[in-house]
Amino acid sequence: MSRNTLILFVKSPVFGRVKTRLARDIGWPQATTLYRRLTGRLLRSVAVDRRWRTALAVTPDHAVSAGFWPRRMRRIAQGGGDLGSRMRRALLGASGPAVIVGSDIPGIDRRHIATAFQFLRSHDVVIGPALDGGYWLIGVRCPAYARRLFYDVRWSSAHALADTLTGLPASARVANLPVLRDIDDAADLSAISAR
Known about the structure:
The protein is α/β, with parallel strands linked by helices. It contains six helices and seven strands.
């Protein structure tokens, strides 16, 4: 039986390279600090659970060997192409059920990941919708389903989720997790801070 794989999509937490939309609103120092905190929280909260193996999918590729990632954690380069190409490649590299999450979702916890893998026992695809029309999690029961995802997606738009699922066959069983908010801009940050 193949083991569940959690793939965390992360960027090198370097000033000027992360949270560009947010940085336009609040400044580079604050956006970089926030990204580092969010990534650190994600690594502490969901990456260390023994119910799944965790891999960091890192961009840029040369940052795979950077010293700020946990030493014992498996790291893979995201590679080239748009976000969809990189996510498809990561899912195809898994040997069984696999879930991808981003690093800018403060509300995520282990229960969300465990529930996603539970859904993948009886569903082909699992999605964690985001308030903005995108998604904070996507997973597949087997890598073959990844071949049908991520084509012609209007990223960073209200259509990203719908576009992502367009390539699936009508018979595909899709499960939905709760809607969470990711942090893309100052409005998202304000909404989360207010809660």
